Amino acid sequence: MPAVPSSRMTRVLSGIQPTGDIHLGNFLGALRQWAIDQHEHDSFYCAVDLHAITVQQDPVELRSKTLETMATLVAVGLDPEVCTLFVQSHVPYHTELSWLLECTVSFGELRRMTQFKDKSVKQGDAGQEHVSAGLFTYPALMAADILIYDADRVPVGDDQRQHLELTRDVADRFNSRYGETFVLPAAAIPKIAARVMDLQEPTNKMSKSTESPMGTVGIFEDTTSIAKKLKRAVTDSENEVRFDFDTKPGVSNLLSILGAATGRDPETLADEYHQYGPLKNDTAEAIINLLEPVQHRRAELLADPAELDQIIARGAGKASEVATVTVQRAKDAMGFLPSS
Q1: What is the pLDDT of residues 277-315, one digit of tens each?
Q2: Residues 6+ apart with CB under 8 A from 275
Q3: Distance separating the N- and C-terminal Cα atoms of the chain
Q4: Rounded CA gap, 146 and 127, in Å?
Q5: Residues taking part in catalysis
């Protein structure tokens, strides 16, 4: 049986669902860090379209959003010559390993997953009968996404810590039962702007599925609209600029966004402002300067689908070369009869 890789560059894995509009929180909290990590680690990034179908999707829209997501990943700085960039469903080994892990994780563990509980409760008592089984079991698929590439580090937001801990628990259990098979991944959470908050409700995280359109900034929004939203961001009745999320969440959110956009410490930035207006103006300007090149690059890619198709196909091939080895290692460990 092949051994777990021991001597190699640290490997990073992360993915993003091709649903909704990618917003400023996704960009500052995750995608920009991915672009940095690709030069420091052996990096694997994907559009997790299989996760998207835990709720019903329009087929035409899913296909379009997946292409747009892949174009976005390239536009934000991911280089397909440097990292492995692919669409999840183009690597069928994910679902094969997911089944092996579903038979390793317990019903109780899946039932305790916060996201499943939150989403199923929203359906009400009658609606829960119609919640897809995939919504319940998808943490096993998420674990497969990570373990299949022997990932050492997984960039995640605070809200995904629970799923990563489950992945570690399942991998450890599998290794205990069948021998050392999987690498146990660790979380990698950005220190600045790990969670960008809603501009109108700064105690809530900025979300793709938000009901607060003025509080969410899409990274491909018109720059005039972006500036307007940032300048209308909720602050408070005081005039003091201070970085303190407990007592001044709106102001602190702006400082956090500006800090992430400029690579500066939010607390240090707070000392440079004495009024909210200049802080809002500077934050808007910094974000627009950051996003304009991304917007232009994605437009170029979507105008040339042949280039994008080549990037996607090449990435699936590179990912499959690694994934097939891991799945075979897991099947051998569990005692499956080798195929001829």
Answers
A1: 999 999 999 999 999 999 999 999 999 889 999 999 999
A2: 239, 241
A3: 16
A4: 31
A5: 119, 205, 208
Average pLDDT over residues 224-232: 96
Give the pLDDT mean for 63-82.
97
Spell out the alpha helix ranges (H) of 103-245: 107-111, 114-122, 124-127, 133-147, 161-178, 223-231
Nearest CA to 62 out of 91, 16, 15, 19 is that of 19
Which strands, in side-by-side order, build the sheet including 153-155?
A: 84-87, 42-47, 11-16, 153-155, 186-188
* Distance separating alpha carbons of residues 4 and 179, to the nearest angstrom: 10
- Residue found under tokens 């492995």: 84
- The answer, yes or no, to whether residue 191 has pLDDT greater than 70, is no
**Torsion angles phi and psi, residue 12, rounded to 5:** -120, 140
Q: What domains appear along the chain, each with residue ranges and CATH number?
A: 11-194+305-334 (3.40.50.620), 213-298 (1.10.240.10)
Q: Which residues pair with 56 in a beta bridge?
A: none
Separation CA 210–CA 205 (nearest Å): 9
Q: d(Cα 159, Cα 150) in Å, to the nearest integer?
A: 22
Sign of CA dihedral 168, 174, 176, 178: negative
pLDDT band, very low/low/confident/very high, at 3 (cuts 50, 70, 90): low
Query: What DSSP string runs through 19-73?
Result: -S--BHHHIIIIIHHHHHHTTTSEEEEEE-HHHHTTS---HHHHHHHHHHHHHHH
Q: What tens digit of pLDDT does each residue of 195-222 get?
A: 789 999 999 988 876 567 899 999 999 9
Contact criterion met (CB below 8 Å) for 145 and 88 = yes
